[in-house]
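Minimal example, chain plus nicotinamide-adenine-dinucleotide.
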Amino acid sequence: MRYTSLVTGGAGFIGAHVARHLVQMKHQVVIIDDLSGGFESNIPTAAIFKKGSITDSAFVQEVFTQYRFDYVYHFAAYAAEGLSHFIRNFNYTNNLLGSINLINAAVNHEIKCFVFTSSIAVYGTQELPLSENQHPQPEDPYGIAKYAVEKDLECAHQLFGLPYIIFRPHNVYGPLQNIGDSYRNVVGIFMNQLLQQQPMTIFGDGTQQRAFTYIDDLAPYIAAAPAFAKAYHQVFNIGNDVAHTVNELAKAVAKSMNKEANISYLDAREEVKLAYATHKKFTAVFDPKPSTSLDQGLKQTARWVAQHGARQSSVFDPIEITKNLPPSWQ
Ligand SMILES: NC(=O)c1ccc[n+]([C@@H]2O[C@H](COP(=O)([O-])OP(=O)(O)OC[C@H]3O[C@@H](n4cnc5c(N)ncnc54)[C@H](O)[C@@H]3O)[C@@H](O)[C@H]2O)c1
């Protein structure tokens, strides 16, 4: 049987990789993306592209009526966690209400599984490593929106029987990532700065810790998830186990590009200082291959970045609150 899958945000980084895996799995793939953060060139040629926003419920309904989706893979969001404090209306409209349009359509069209990428941002500051057993306490509007969508899926499952699987990735990097967005994707920001002979900028003292996750350790498992019966109605942390400080990351990125590690430290911003997670639950169900090391993943990413060159960064407009906005974002 040939499945039909909707991939929202499929012109973006993770969505494009998952879409490629779905094409390889012989799914008919339909992509919805408004190109606010993605690129048409990321879309696999075999996929059907519908340009539009998930916040447009009429558009979402039209696409669901046109195709009979078996699966929905929902990636469309603006994933700028730090900036989300200052663009609250945009964040909740895009990341929460847009998701609700998709959940409504998924219920009405009785799809087989709704796969959602949440984030470990839902945890906030908690005992490490972050585990699915902990009760989420998100500390920023981005994490709050992600957790609200998780709860809404749970609710839609209980009342309407909507099948779902939730992943909570963290700090994903690799080829196809937008390196020109100065508000997010630290690996991309560093590479873009190095390409332009600028110092790498770090908020605070660089001792923040994150576990950076190479895209190939995540995308194939998300694409295959609906085939795993034990994954349904579960939440999984997904990503690398090994945490690094942002200072270590900067040095590793410079090494991957054969450049000097020049760093410029900026005032600390509001952020969770330590965030890495356990993946025992994911491993028990998906039995993944060993993870890609940071050096290996950065080498692959640097190769792709060198082929594609630097990208101009633009200022997010409109910023809704300027109070306490880091000066480098003004
Ligand atoms: N990259 C990470 O480290 C990471 C970590 C945790 C969770 N996530 C989640 O994974 C998903 C994909 O992230 P990514 O890194 O690929 O980001 P991305 O920006 O590369 O991809 C998101 C895509 O969604 C599109 N989009 C945004 N708003 C839209 C809208 N209203 N309608 C239609 N399309 C819209 C953008 O144009 C972009 O192509 C997001 O939901 C993000 O929150 C990412």
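Residues 9, 11-15, 32-38, 53-55, 75-79, 94, 98, 117, 119, 169-172, 178 surround nicotinamide-adenine-dinucleotide (CB under 6 Å). The mean pLDDT is 97.
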